[in-house]
From TrEMBL:
GO molecular function: zinc ion binding
Keyword Zinc-finger attributed: yes
Keywords for the protein's UniProt record, in alphabetical order: Metal-binding, Zinc, Zinc-finger
Protein name: C2H2-type domain-containing protein
Organism: Mucor saturninus
InterPro entries linked: Znf_C2H2_type
Ranges where the C2H2-type domain occurs: 23-51
Length: 154
């Protein structure tokens, strides 16, 4: 098989990671179905009033992640702010700091950029960073092994 034929067999690697954004209470560490439920919980049980996100808008497009619902398969779970589009690795402490600094501090604008977390934080992501060349070499090795096994069964 030629290199040209082999390269056409290599699937395109999508560099974006599928992710689900969890709504978790940073005070009592309970999870909720959506941001609205979490805001209600914070108001009723923790006397914390947070503003709602703008109605009718979904999470903005991201070059690193493809957003999924909880029922769809996803590779990463992040924690999202119920009041803005901020997200971070699952950390109640980090979310508490974000809410205090961005939504409780009267001198602050009201949102902050998502945390661009260190990829080493996630153990299962190593394979996503493989280059197309290494993927092609994996397919070549698999083809070689397939040839060896098929010769055993002739």
């Amino acid at each position: 098989m030629s290199d040209t034929e082999r390269s056409t067999m290599v699937p395109e690697v999508n560099p974006r990671i599928t992710a689900y954004v969890e709504s978790g209470c940073y005070v009592c560490q309970k999870y909720f179905a959506n941001a609205s439920s979490l805001r209600t919980h914070l108001r009723v049980f923790h006397s914390t009033e947070l503003p709602a996100r703008q109605a009718g808008r979904s999470r903005p497009h991201n070059v690193k992640y493809v957003w999924r619902s909880k029922k769809q398969p996803h590779r990463r779970t992040l924690m999202g702010c119920p009041s803005c589009w901020f997200y971070c690795p699952l950390s109640f402490t980090r979310m508490s700091i974000h809410v205090q600094e961005c939504h409780m501090d009267p001198d602050h604008e009201g949102s902050e950029d998502p945390i661009d977390e260190d990829e080493s934080y996630f153990d299962d992501e190593n394979f996503l960073h493989a280059s197309v060349d290494s993927t092609a070499s994996i397919y070549a090795a698999m083809e070689s092994l397939t040839g060896k096994f098929s010769s055993l069964f002739k």
